[in-house]
Amino acid sequence: MQEYEVRIDRNKCIGAGSCEKVAPDIFSVDESNKVALKCAQAGAVSLKIGSDKIKSAVEGARVCPVYAIGVIDKSAGKSILGIEPEKNLEVRKILAHYDSSKEWQMDPFGFFTIKPFPAEGIIKVRYYNAKHQLAAEIAGKTAEEIYNTICREKLVSSLAHSAYLGSELQKAEIAMKRNLPYVQDDPLDFKQS
Ligand code: SF4
Predict the structure, then answer these.
(1) Is the domain of 70 the same as that of 105?
(2) Domain count, the chain
């Protein structure tokens, strides 16, 4: 079996935990909030793995925002990640702005209505297609599982619409958990909590 090595740099790690979420079979975040290697001795910063674990290792390494994880092909002696940062990349400074009256565009795939049901602990979402017909009802306990389901089912076609849904669903989840009134597209009113 081909051999690979996973290397972690605990000094670079900021404890974001994405690696553990994506590849819990290889990475964990320890009590000092730094990445550690499962199945390795305590304090180890490298781990030999076979090709059976390579997919998981690469996925975990790729989500690390600070490049604290390396995956090396032992026979070629080089990284297989292909995500080494450019040395002189200029960081763009961008001032956020958005004018909904001018920039908002209807998603050609349709639209959604969102309603939390606190007594049941679920959020129900209705999907209306481009002909404004109710075409799907999605129910879930968290914003994350619902927006990922919507994306998987390919019910949205634009990044802006996906981002809107994520934001609205998170609001609905907060409202449900804190027993706040939820009105789609309105800000949450925390004074009522
Ligand atoms: S994703 Fe990167 S920064 Fe986050 S815990 Fe893992 S190694 Fe550390």
Answers:
(1) no
(2) 2
Strands (E), the chain: 3-8, 27-29, 35-37, 46-50, 69-73, 78-79, 111-117, 122-128, 134-140
Residue-wise pLDDT tens digits, 154-172: 999 999 999 999 999 999 9
Going by the DSSP 8-state scheme, the letter that residue 41 receives in this structure is -
Ligand 1 midpoint to CA 26 (Å): 12
Angle formed by the axes of helices 159-177 and 143-152, nearest 10° = 150
The CA 168 to ligand 1 mean position distance, Å, reads 28
Do 184 and 168 contact (CB within 8 A), yes or no? Answer: yes
What residues of the chain score a pLDDT lower than 70? Answer: 85, 192-193
Is 192 within the bounds of a domain? no
Q: Residue 42 has what pLDDT?
A: 80
* CB 165 less than 6 A from any atom of ligand 1: no
Q: Please report the sign of the dihedral spanned by the C-alpha atoms of residue 144, residue 9, residue 48, residue 78.
A: positive
Structure tokens at 106: 């209807």
CATH number, domain containing residue 18 = 3.30.70.20
Burial of 69 from C-beta contacts in 10 A (0-12 / 13-18 / 19+): buried
Confidence at residue 188, expressed as pLDDT on a 0 to 100 scale: 95
Residue 99 alpha carbon to ligand 1 centre in Å: 36
Contact in structure between 67 and 12 (CB atoms under 8 Å): yes
CB 193 within 8 A of CB 178: yes
